[in-house]
Each structure stands twice: as structure tokens, then as C-alpha cells.
Amino acid sequence: MRKLIISILALASVLSVAAQKQNAAYLAYIEQWKETAIRQQIDYGVPASITMAQALLESAAGQSELALNANNHFGIKCTGDWFGGVYYYDDDRQNECFRQYNDAALSFKDHSLFLKRARYETLWEIAVEDYEGWAYRLKQCGYATDKNYAPKLIKIIEDYRLDTLAKDIASYEPQSGRALEREEGPMPGGYHQHPQPKEVIAEGTA
């Protein structure tokens, strides 16, 4: 009995430490956007865990200047094929151009479309369940300049069990005619996807 009590106390201690690592703002953000992240995996093939981890990290759980003022939750900068709204913000350089959206949900969708660019084509060689592979490949492809970008994503995924977000994915259905396709024509919020230029002007940020 004594051994059982000690084991229970040890488990409770571990669970307590794990709970302390979880940020209330992160938990609220996950609850708010988990359905949207799952939808990205269904319709575009981007792992829900990666979408959510990037959104949490890039937007500071929705509290960054870009998220609050531009509805930009992924730090995606303007590119030559972007004709939507813009927001200027100091990042790697002063007064850099970032994409602005009418709705934060459009930022999630645009992120999925953004990863269909040629620069990220090797992402799709990695299984959707392999969040570590996706995290390191995103860094290798140049999504962010932070050398610790991949470990940060992985830590967020593991601390908040984001790898379990899509466990009930079978209960969802793809949106008709939209899965794994780029937008042809305007997207609500001023986005219009033109043919991809040979050179990318700017990518994501960290």
C-alpha cells in the first residue's frame, strides 16, 4: 500500500509540473482555433499540430502586434503575388511589409496556401504525423530566421499535446472542391493568388 501511495504522489507531482508548463493564454487560443487548424489538415494537408504551433509562436497566442492589428497570425510577409492589405512593421529590417487580413481565419487559410509554394515543396515528402520532420523542414526551407525555430515548435506541440488535435479527423469532411488547391480569383479579405513568381520577395518570420 505504501508503494502504491508513493507512486500516486509521484504521478501527481509529474502532472502538476506538466500543468504548470501550460500557459492559460495558449490554452484559450488552442480552444478558439483548433477547429480551424484541423480544417487546414483536411483541406490542404498541413498538419494541424504544425499549424497550431506556428500560430501560437508567431502570434504570441494572438497577442502580437501583427495579430492584433493585421489579423496576421503566421508572420507572413508581402510577396510579389500579394495584392491584399498590407501592414508595416519592424522585424529583421525596419518598416517591413506584412500581409493584412480582414479576418484572422483567412490568415490560417493563407498560411496553408503559402506552404504550397515551390520553396516548401519538400515539406510534402514528410508524413502528416511527423511533426518533428515538418518543424525542421520548415526551418530548412527558410520559413524563419530563428535558429531554434524547430525546437520551439516541437516543444509547443509536446507541451500542449497538439499532436492529438486531429485524432477525430475522420468525423470531418473536406470542403467541396477546395482540398489541396490554390485559390483562383479573390479570397475574402482582399487576397488574390496570382501565378507564383520565380523569386520570392519575402517569407515568414520568427
Please explain how this structure is put together.
About 20% of the residues have low confidence. α2 crosses α3 and α3 packs across α7. The strands form two sheets. The protein has a two-stranded antiparallel ribbon with strand order 1-2. A two-stranded antiparallel ribbon has the order 3-4. The protein has seven helices and four strands. The protein has 206 residues and is mostly helical. The radius of gyration is 18 Å and the shape is globular. Helix content is 44%, strand content 7%. β1 and β2 form a beta hairpin.
Kindly state the number of beta strands. Answer: 4
Quickly count the helices: 7
Could you describe the largest sheet, including whether it forms a barrel? 2 strands, antiparallel
Taking the alpha carbons of the first and last residues, their distance comes to 51 Å
Tell me the radius of gyration.
18 Å
Helical content (DSSP H or I, runs of 4+): 40-55%
Quote the beta fraction.
Answer: 5-15%
Overall shape: it is: globular
| Parts with pLDDT < 50 across at least 5 consecutive residues | 4-17, 176-202
What is the element string, with H for helices and E for strands? HHHHEEHHHEE
Strand order of the largest sheet: 1-2
Overall mean pLDDT: 82
Helix/strand-derived class?
A: mainly alpha
Q: Secondary-structure map with pairings?
A:
Layout: H1 2-20, H2 24-44, H3 48-59, H4 65-70, E1 85-89, E2 96-100, H5 104-114, H6 131-140, H7 149-159, E3 186-187, E4 191-192
Antiparallel strand pairs: 1-2, 3-4
Helix pairs in contact: 2-3, 2-5, 3-7, 6-7
Task: Supply database-style keywords.
4 strands; 206 residues; 44% helix; mainly alpha; globular; two-stranded antiparallel ribbon; two-stranded antiparallel sheet
